[in-house]
Amino acid sequence: MNPLIIHAHSSHVNKVIFSPNEKFLVSAGFSGELKLWDVENGELLQRFEGHTKTVNGIEFADQGETLLSGSADGSFRKWNVATGECTDTLNEQKKGIGSLILAKDQSFVVTSSPDYMLAVRPLPEGEISNRIKADKKNVGIMALNQSSTLVATGGMGNYIRFYNVSTGNLVTSIDAHDTAVMSFQFFDNDEKGVSIGYMGDVKVWDLQKNEVLRECKIGEKGYYSLDVSPDETQVAISMPYQVSLLNLHDLEEDSILYVKPKGNYGISYSPSGQYLGLASADKRVRVWRMNTK
């Protein structure tokens, strides 16, 4: 499969997401760059100008009419997608926002920063209502479960930890990977999860028992990120020089998508699974049209 390659940014691209209708994608990167693209032809449709440092988290809201973003410049912003106008800005996290996830019902977002491993922001206001101080460097949120009651955190260190969103209490933790947990996602009605570590080991978890169901090794030390396909049959993993597509049920390799850059970061399926997007260090976004039934 040959991807659509978009020459997107002036520096690294670290995040990419698709709009709910799959007609558009947004890319986020260094120097505050945040852009909207046509999925079919790669045409630049909009620039969202206002962030001054790396944009680390992006989410569509309001059926794709609103874009939410969090940046290393410390600001949480809302944007009108059609006009590119910034409609709201909150600047209370001076050390920056490292990640951002929107709840399924869009009633709140959770963010991470160097100071706060987890901060809950009710919408539409977006001001922090509950927070958990960071007890380690480079640890933050990775995923919300389907009911948006549980948030998974990871990063430097061996553990994936699960917190109750409402109370901020630690629910449970898993000794998951050596050195660092790079990425994690829930699936199968939140009864299972899949994670990848810094050493290139992939693990599927029974979250009811906190036990490994299956595991494999796909690489050496490096940066990895993953996303689960909407039908939950496949996990896509970005890694140096390639994207690995694994069957989620047995972790056998379905396919490898080779790319030129060593640094590959955010990876995302579109809502139906028709497209797969990759953000890379070579300033480009790649979009594959997947074989869907």
From TrEMBL:
Tell me which positions the record assigns to the signal sequence.
none
Origin, by domain of life? Bacteria
Q: Where are the WD repeats?
A: 6-47, 48-89, 174-215, 267-293
Keyword Phosphoprotein, does the record have it? no
Which keywords label this protein?
A: Repeat, WD repeat
Matching entries from InterPro entries are given as: Beta-prop_NWD2_C, WD40/YVTN_repeat-like_dom_sf, WD40_repeat_dom_sf, WD40_rpt
What name does this protein carry?
NWD2 C-terminal beta-propeller domain-containing protein
Q: What is this organism's lineage? A: Bacteria, Bacillati, Bacillota, Bacilli, Bacillales
